[in-house]
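Annual report, structural modelling task.

Input specification for the shikimate-3-phosphate complex:
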Amino acid sequence: MTGSSAKRLKKKSRALKPFSIRNKVVPRASFPLPGDKSIAHRALILSALSRGKAILKNFPFHDDSLATLKALENLGVKIQAGKNEVCVRGRGLRGLRPCRGEVFADNSGTTLRLLLGVLAGFDFKTRVTAGKYLSRRPMSRVNIPLRLMGARIVSRLRGGEEYAPVTISGGNLKGIDYSLKIASAQVKSAILLAGLFAAGRTRVRESLKTRDHTERMLKAFGAGICVKGKAVTLVPGREFSAPERIYIPGDISSASFFMVLAAAIPGSRVRLKGVGLNPGRSGIIGVLKRMGARIKISPASSGSLKNFEPFGDILVCGGALKGAVVESREIPSLIDELPVLMVAACFARGRTLIKGAGELRFKETDRINSMVFNLKRMGADIRILKSGPLENISIDGRGRLRGADLKSFGDHRTAMSMVVAGLASGEKFKLDDTGCINKSFPGFIEAVKRACGI
Ligand code: S3P
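The model returned the following structure:
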């Protein structure tokens, strides 16, 4: 730990950074991944609300985690940053202070939605603002249940939907029994976090199970939480304490780009070390295996759990891929990996059908639109089939794509997926911007170059 205040951590510049290459590559590498983004947000928030000091190891310093870190500092939490770790001095459950000015969530949906859950527990007023991309994402999904718990929330209204900025004041909450209308771990987590401050128990019911990092971490911190099937019950009233050290496993969403890059290029061999293998996040492994990818998982020994999160190494070797069906119920476990799975489907032979992918339209950009635009430019046979409210994506893979001029749409996962598509095509391609990748994986382009020997 350097002792430097985290406040000095600067967001990397967002000037457009084009990327262009014409090499044929065969990735062969073995490396660890930066810590999981979803877990990092939760570790910061729960450490801030607990008593004592917590050191978060393998902490990923990207725009999204910095948004949560700076927001918490603004609310009175002392955080120090080291090389790959941060130290959070918890203020206890009731210890946040009103901020001077506003809290800025940048473009991080997890920051905004989870913090609203926390701020619902405090009687002071906070205005939370957002960057250009997050300001276009729907907020009523989280505002509605928090209002039912007693929070007072005002946000920008447009066409019957609510958007940031959001002004919230809370306190005096009551527990609710709430069935999620949309499969969303952010909404589930916001309700559970608010439940920590409520009178009476809070129960969240899911129809499709989403990532359970919040539940696992609450348990690790000693909060009163019980999971039975698809229902999570939180019993408030306990002050909790952070484990002294919280190890954040490698981010499987970041790993997924290298998994597909290796799977799609014959002769490749990539080992991704220390990656989180939470079943609520690792759906991509099963789908790639069904597509015929050669994948070997080595779960870590010594209990295989760090702070209740399983992790291990993933080895992927290149070979022939075939089309597969992705069922709606699998979507939450691979929602962030769908763009790169669409790329994998193009390098497979035969039809891939992804069912119930409509939530992709509500991410940093409309990812159905951004991926269809780019993959069509590369010659893909990709179609959107609507059946009622469901959107299915059908891709007739031909085992190849051609080089093209590609667009990131300001979205990190579209950008990384298109780097994978371009490299696997073996043809010259150009991507207009890679600066947006700083949102979740600032070292991505360097890691790709190292893995491919470029
Ligand atoms: C996240 C949940 C997912 C995911 C996002 C991170 C989280 O969003 O897409 O990248 O950390 O809880 P939704 O809750 O909107 O599905």
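The two ends are 33 Å apart (CA to CA).
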